[in-house]
């Protein structure tokens, strides 16, 4: 049953005197199995809560609320019961490649369809219990994000290490017949699921459009902590260019049939291959931007629109440093060159080589605090350091290695601003206006006020 972890100030739960440690036993007389039952039960306007208080008292509370109004609590477990763990043995599993002394959540394998529905996690559908595929269909749990990797059943079983994994096309066909939308992905491993196998996967998944609305191809992520694991390697620059070309070929085939490109290559392929980032038309509706598909294009387009609003001069000189992963170095450096045209503003870019996971890991989101300190100590000459918030835990200013932002600040003796990894985030930081905005709300901020204020300083 759902156990309350925290109660949000000013929330409906606080008004009802619900407290941390309380259990929600039932809603409208129906026992609550998990977060899906909870979400559907709380959607109504008139509900009855059976609550077991932390001291053992039993309460029944009648609630008159707005439709879909949140109760305003955090639960002890994100799925209310417990997160469904993954029993696959994927040859490319990133969890198998992290140091053993990492915090517990980074070593947890989840493959929970409920997290896919609620938070966009990718799942393989190989860890479903009996009747759960039918539950997804019956409750219209759409869209789902599904890790396919290969539609060839023999190859998929080899890659996922699970005998059930060969059923993926049958599962997708069932969900498609029940109008469940799906976003799919392939983690591309050279000499495993590339070439003709990738062609087969794209062709077979495209047949389920529009139920399968997108397919992203993302490169395998390999760390230096792979002892005893399957032999895998990263894409070479030439292979990255070939994969981008293969995807473009399929877009040319599918666009006349489907009206969309359907399949997209992740940004990393263009970084690895030092290729030009495609235009916005390439990405359809950017449905998988959080999967690293189209982030750089949105960054470039956003910055282009912001350039017209940039001040020509700052009244007070400002020297800013930006840290980034090596894959985004070219784009961030180009942006800094444009910002450096503003009189009174100096912007330096410091690409961080990932020593913690290994230099083959190039994305910004996996940079650690200790690598920033080690590589920037005695080098920084700026007044402030911009850190993209994708490097940090969602609910706290903590890096993957448990270093805190304050530790990095103290070690480097520099002011730090945490900013979104967007063009507006970089511009806000460069102009010095992010300190006025809550970190997690900066994506919603507009540039106009900051630019105007900076220009008049």
Automatic annotation (TrEMBL):
Gene3D superfamilies: 2.30.42.10, Aldolase class I. Residues 65-214 form the Putative radical SAM N-terminal domain. Residues 4-52 form the PDZ domain. Coiled coil: none annotated. Residues 218-419 form the DUF512 domain. This is Fe-S oxidoreductase. It comes from Sulfoacidibacillus ferrooxidans.
